[in-house]
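Supplementary notes for students who missed Thursday's class. We covered one full example, reproduced here. Read the sequence, then the structure, then the short commentary at the end.
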Amino acid sequence: MRPIWKGSISFGLVTIPISVFSATSSGEKISFKMLRRRDLSPIRYKRVAEVDGQEVSWDDIVKGYEYEKDKFVVFEEKDFDAVELASTETISIQDFVELDQIDPVFFHTPYYLEPMKGGAGAYALLRDVLTETGKVGIAKVTLRNREHLAAVKPDGSLLVMELMHFANEISPAEAIKVPAEQKLGAREKEMAKVLVNQMSTDWKPERYQDEYAAAVLKLVDQKIKAGGKELPGHKKRPAAATNVVDLVKVLQESLAATGKSAGKTAKAAKSTRKRTAHHHKAA
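Structure (token representation):
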């Protein structure tokens, strides 16, 4: 894995040289090409100049900022090196805050931070202090010619930097309409808590797969076997909302269903343990 950025973390007078690595990958995503319907010819997108409609090569393209209507100032890549911001070379921690105080909606892209030569001690110090205090460092960093807000967090033996949205990038939640609260009885709440407890488990990310991608690939196979013909569709109906009056009944049915599921899992585990014990005894 190659670093996408090299620089340092700074807080107070402490400087930690680090390399930044992407913590996510695109994986094997399903992609479709745009085709002309009548002959399935692939569609190409061209970069053309507005003034004459001629195609423009990448070598002949520059970045321009429109400061007035139809008036531009051109920037070359080397011009961005002149930007006078500490965050262009440093993940500059401004404050330390309680992680629980930050609305998760602010976070969006994670990166791994790796200490470079001479930075291991200070790296471990920052990681351990953040872990023990439950705090994160709120920093500024410039990536790909744009300054980002970021949180430096501990993650086991690592430090992770998660890019964040600035406050003015978050749409106001007041615009979302939530109906007036309806009174719920203690019985419904207690049953709902039991259901949540029955459905609770340890976090294992590998349990959750991209089922949509698998379903689309299955559809691709069916299309190929059908010679590209239209396949019969399934009429989808939106799920009806659970009314307050029906909550007790629905919760009872849910508890029964999850109880049976848990029972099957426990029975299977018990059977496995018996077979294992018998195997060891026979050995």
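Commentary. Confidence is low (pLDDT under 50) at residues 275-283. Residues 181-199+245-283 form one domain. If anything here is unclear, bring it to office hours.
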